[in-house]
Design goal:
The structure holds 2 protein chains of 2 kinds. Helix content of chain A is 43%, strand content 13%. A 4-stranded mixed beta sheet of chain A has the order 1-4-5-8. A 4-stranded antiparallel beta sheet of chain A has the order 2-3-7-6, with no helix packed on it. Chain A is globular and about 70 Å long. By secondary structure, chain B is of the alpha+beta class. Chain B contains 12 helices and 10 strands. The longest helix of chain B has 36 residues. In chain B, a hairpin with an 8-residue loop joins strand 6 and strand 7. The chains are: A alpha+beta, B alpha+beta. At the A-B interface, helix 7, helix 8, helix 9 and helix 12 of A face helix 8, strand 10, helix 9, helix 10 and helix 12 of B.
């Protein structure tokens, strides 16, 4: 157990910092610290250009193996990359769903043809992806998806019908990975397929959802006879749940450290405001700020534990990984509340019309989604109790 | 960077776990609680002679094993988990650390091999005002005086909340030059507990698994060789000792929090009501999940703090983070242990309220450990001062 990095890794840190220092300038200066969660609708054009610039420098997919176009960075180097990226104010990545979810899934479960067809566009920063999991009737109960995939032998294509919801980046994405029912008579985890679907086609309609913030990052996606090539199913029909669950493991990777640097930026803003407006003298605010600081520090070390340890041979998550979503989401939600209480009476007043929120006000509202998406806090607690502690499942109705 | 235990560290932890599960049983704890010293002398001899635990992080040149704070923390976690009644915490985490941080090479050569072999020690610094100052544990609470007298010093004053103070064979005491205030004028002295003029009383404690005492020094004469470090200059070293001690206590608290979770899960799985194991109710599962979250977060905080502590002992690049890491670990673990103990009691229902079950031992120890060396609120205020009251701090 040792916290310091090797000299070679520190050298790598310099390299990353220097590249960002040189390239995150000019037209890109205005997107520094922008486009993160709650702000993902902003500066789409500039951020898509930035993704390509990043790719040209070899800084996309840094943790992917070299044979798939990645940089083949060690865990330590990935930690460093994501930390330096966030420290420099690197904007929210438009390619993160491809790099973090679609790509690793294709690498783990896809055919050679699928790897050849899809991975280069992710690495180059030209192909953007979105995720088609949740449906109006399949939120916490994800296995209850109703979207159907029927194979049309004449066209040699899968035909999809149904509706997805809470799909971020759907307007911008070129592809969507979708779980849909390949066996119309199946239910639950069985009879699902995992599809790689082209978004630009007549059978796909995207409708933005106006959120609590007044802005729209999430969308509804409708499939009306949307088509998917026969080769674009990952795994066999019926394997969809296995593939989808494998993907959830990739979500808890090294990029969590970058997310934490963003949290640190937000906490720094709260602290700066508290010092400026006198809230820092309030003993209760002091306690809450210190608690937020302490728990964010520990969050980093919890991630390092996650990265240092090995998952169980069955792919099960270790305990420190099982609690991670519940921990960071609850922490972030509390930060939103703290930010407003530090703002004090000014928290009531917006920056402008029609509904222009300050960064901290937007955060206060947006973080309410953290404890809902990707498994609500209540579902997380069930998972922790059942998988982490071996407590019996609730009898099902 | 490496944030997993090495094989050797895992072995130390697992050996400690297996040994303590066998010897620190409910019956053994209760027997030890009833003794004057608060621990089983035979077991302590076995721990010192066969397992050589007190020697763990003492450098080899001073008769120790030369291992680090990470190994120490791994062992303390298990001691907290199994409520081991022993002078280990006082002797090693207060005594050994004081000598390591403040002693000269000569003093280390004199005392550390004895401590490594099982001589018991403790540290006395604060008077009763720690309780009157909103739970303050810093140098302000030192009122005992050290008056130079020729080549000697005359020590006078009183101490409270001294862990294993009545049974320790060696005392390390903090005293100030008469008239000095705050962190100025503090010195540390090491003296045999039977030195003339020392009187000690065991205090009856809420937590019976750890003895505390009051000590009075009535014009105790000690030679200059008893002075650790420079006269009047001990405050920074003492603060480091207290930070290291807070990290050690946090490790025990984390182990205790783990045990409360394990006990609660085991009991609720067995307990049947309404025709079901009560562990199948979400109301119970969600409590357990929150307990596991607190344990794992506490563990991450303690491991991080242990790495920083190791650097502090070696003078590594993160040494400057020691106080911060100590306050982070102690604040989180204090709250986590107490909350887990309280939830464990609730989840046991009526039997959690009995003397017979072990839940109350944790419930009491959790509250006592929370207050010793500063509550969560005390340590958060310490963090707040660094975060909010310094110009230019982020």
């Amino acid at each position: 157990m040792k916290l310091s990095f090797s000299p070679a890794d520190e050298q790598f840190r310099q390299e990353v910092a220097q590249w960002l220092n040189v390239n995150l300038t000019g037209d890109f200066a205005k997107i520094r610290f922008r486009g993160g969660p709650g702000d993902e609708h902003m500066f789409q054009h500039e951020r898509q250009q930035w993704e390509k610039t990043l790719a040209a420098g070899g800084w996309t997919c840094v943790g992917w193996p070299k044979q798939y176009g990645g940089r083949g960075c060690s865990i330590e180097q990935q930690v460093i990359f994501f930390e330096e990226y966030a420290r420099a104010g690197g904007p929210g990545r438009v390619g993160h769903i491809g790099e973090g979810l679609a790509g690793p899934t294709i690498i783990a479960f896809g055919t050679d043809a699928q790897k050849h067809k899809y991975l280069p566009g992710i690495v180059a920063g030209t192909d953007l992806w979105c995720q088609g999991y949740s449906e109006p009737g399949a939120g916490s109960d994800l296995a209850n998806v109703k979207t159907k995939a029927r194979f049309d032998a004449e066209k040699n294509k899968w035909i999809l019908n149904g509706q997805k919801v809470w799909t971020s980046l759907a307007q911008e994405a070129h592809y969507c990975f979708v779980i849909a029912r390949t066996d119309a008579n199946s239910s639950g985890h069985k009879g699902l397929g995992f599809f790689l679907l082209k978004m630009d086609q007549p059978g796909v309609t995207v409708r933005p959802i106006q959120q609590i913030t007044g802005t729209s990052e999430f969308n509804e996606v409708f499939f009306d006879d949307a088509e998917c090539d026969a080769d674009d199913i990952v795994g066999a029909p019926g394997d969809g749940w296995k593939v989808a669950m494998g993907l959830l493991g990739f979500e808890r990777g090294v990029s969590t450290l970058g997310q934490q640097m963003q949290f640190q930026n937000e906490l720094d803003e709260v602290i700066a405001l508290a010092k400026q407006n006198g809230a820092a003298k309030d003993p209760i605010i002091r306690q809450r700020i210190a608690k937020a600081h302490a728990e964010l520090k520990i969050m980093r070390y919890n991630s390092l534990r996650m990265l240092s340890g090995q998952s169980g041979s069955d792919g099960s998550l270790q305990k420190e990984a099982l609690i991670y979503k519940l921990y960071w989401a609850t922490w972030h939600r509390a930060l939103g509340e703290l930010a407003m209480d530090v703002m004090g009476p000014e928290s009531q007043i917006l920056e402008g019309t029609p509904y222009q929120l300050s960064r901290l006000q937007a955060m206060y509202l947006f973080v309410r989604s953290d404890t809902i998406y990707g498994g609500t806090n209540q579902i997380q607690r069930n998972i922790i109790a059942e998988r982490g502690l071996g407590m019996p499942k609730e009898p099902r109705g | 960077m490496e944030f997993a235990f090495t094989d050797e560290q895992l072995m130390i932890r697992d050996t400690a776990q297996a040994f303590l599960a066998e010897v620190s049983t409910s019956e053994a704890i209760r027997a030890a609680m009833a003794t004057d010293t608060g621990y089983d002398r035979q077991l302590w001899q076995q721990i010192c002679n066969d397992l050589v635990w007190p020697a763990l992080h003492i450098p080899e040149q001073f008769g120790g094993m030369g291992l680090g704070y990470v190994e120490l923390v791994a062992m303390l976690e298990q001691m907290g988990r199994y409520l081991l009644c022993s002078p280990f915490y006082a002797s090693v985490c207060l005594g050994v650390n004081s000598l390591l941080l403040a002693g000269s090479d000569e003093q280390k050569k004199q005392w550390l091999p004895q401590l490594a072999a099982g001589t018991t020690a403790t540290l006395a610094w604060c008077d009763g005002s720690a309780g009157e100052r909103g739970g303050n544990w810093n140098a302000d609470t030192i009122s005992a005086t050290a008056t130079p007298d020729g080549q000697d010093y005359i020590l006078s004053g009183e101490y409270r909340y001294v862990v294993d103070g009545a049974s320790a064979e060696l005392l390390i005491v903090a005293a100030r030059l008469p008239g000095s205030v705050g962190a100025h004028g503090i010195s540390l002295f090491v003296l045999p507990a039977h030195t003339a003029g020392v009187s000690r009383q065991t205090l009856p404690t809420l937590d019976q698994t750890r003895k505390q005492s009051a000590i009075q020094l009535h014009r105790v004469r000690v030679p200059a060789s008893a002075l650790l470090g420079k006269a009047g200059n001990a405050a920074p070293g003492l603060q480091t000792v207290l930070d290291l001690a807070a990290i050690a206590l946090a490790a025990e608290q984390m182990g205790g929090a783990q045990q409360c979770l394990d006990m609660a899960v085991a009991y609720t799985k067995e307990r049947v009501q309404f025709g079901r194991s009560i562990a199948s109710f979400q109301a119970i599962k969600h409590k357990a999940a929150d307990m596991m979250l607190r344990v794992e977060v506490a563990r991450s905080g303690v491991y991080y703090a242990a790495c920083v502590a190791q650097e502090a002992l070696e003078g590594g690049p993160l040494a400057g983070e020691l106080s911060e890491a100590a306050s982070i670990a102690k604040s989180y673990c204090s709250d986590a242990y107490f909350k887990n103990a309280a939830e464990c009691l609730q989840m046991h229902g009526g039997v959690g309220f009995t003397w017979e079950y072990d839940v109350h031992l944790h419930f009491k120890r959790a509250k006592a450990s929370e207050h010793f060396l500063g509550t969560g609120a005390y340590h958060r205020e310490r963090l707040a001062q660094w975060l909010l009251d310094q110009e230019g701090a982020a």
